[in-house]
Amino acid sequence: MTVKTAEFEIAPARWPKDTEQARALLTNYGEYLVSSPSGAAGVCIPGYEAELRGLPGKYVEKEADLLLARVKGEGAGCVAITRRVLTDGTDAAEMKRLWVEPRFRGHGMGRGLVGSAIDWARAHGCGAVVLDTVNEAMPEAAELYRSLGFEEITRFNENPVPGVRFYKLMLR
User: pLDDT band for position 125 (50/70/90)?
Assistant: First the structure.
């Protein structure tokens, strides 16, 4: 499941080859959230440092993936996706860690990463894609989700981050 455009390529991470590239992208994502330049003071993800140290961790399992976007082989963005069953019984894919490096923004890479995550969910038989986000920390991402048909829903996980919002895109 690889997506190629004239400007970038999106494909699942290959472990262990892509470990350092994935760690660098995910580190930049985490640092961005902690600095919260858009006003959501100090978003911090519990256990994130351990996740980075333990890469590839859950992303080598059959029910999860880390999709990497590259420009001429250079790490430019990522999105993580894992399967989960929602309380209503829906088999869903949870999208996390959407990140595009600042110098690669404005070329549709974020949209491409979300589209690739949706394709992954469909290929794995999921009936929906869910995600949580702090709109104030990443307003462009929140707008992207809404433009693709994601709708705000009630809490589906135990994310303790203040101001977190929950979204769902039905696939069937």
Answer: very high
